[in-house]
Amino acid sequence: MTTADDETWMRRAIGLALGHLGKTGDNPAVGCVIVRDGAVIGEAATGPGGRPHAEELALAAAGGAARGAVVYVTLEPCGERSSGAASCGERLARAAVARVVIAAEDPSVLAAGRGLARLRKAGVPTEIGMLAAEARPLYAAYRPRGGR
Asked: Cα separation of 18 and 54, whole Å?
């Protein structure tokens, strides 16, 4: 995949998140697009009220096809969930995705590098900062209180 392809898919994820601004309670609006062989196999934005997370919805849509796919997500996947459910980092690692491309870091104590560490420990390559300036307005008002 080329940088231009990565930017195209990240812009799609940003668009999904934009459509959910103001609908996710205290949680940020996140967009997630899962791509395999140049085609979207799953995509989602954070659910109403902040749950489910975009990554878990997109993974559910992709099913087993997520194995070996590339994931584009607008905000760093969580490394822990306040509910005790599997984190998005854990879900992505278990799905055996090939790579995770992220626009922005998440300052939440349940993310803040923890999701990235979980992915990297599982051997999943990650890239952070893809179109960060375009994603920044999504999180201008986001003030985490410990979880997302």
From this structure: 13
Q: How far apart are CA 148 and CA 139, in angstroms?
A: 12
Known catalytic membership, residue 90: no
Among 104, 102, 88, which residue's Cα sits nearest to residue 139?
Answer: 104
CA distance 11 to 7: 6
Mean pLDDT is lowest, of 52-61, 92-101, 111-120, for 111-120
* 3-class DSSP assignment, residue 17: helix
Assess contact for 124 and 86: CB atoms under 8 A: no
CA distance 66 to 39: 12
Choose, from 55, 56, 76, 90, the residue flagged as catalytic: 55
**Which pTM does this prediction carry?**
0.94
| pLDDT given at position 147 | 44
The continuous run of DSSP H or E covering 31 comes out as: strand 31-36
Mean pLDDT value of segment 44-59: 96
CA distance 92 to 118: 9
CB–CB of 127/119 below 8 Å? no
Closest CA to 65 of 24, 96, 100: 96
Amino acid at 47: G
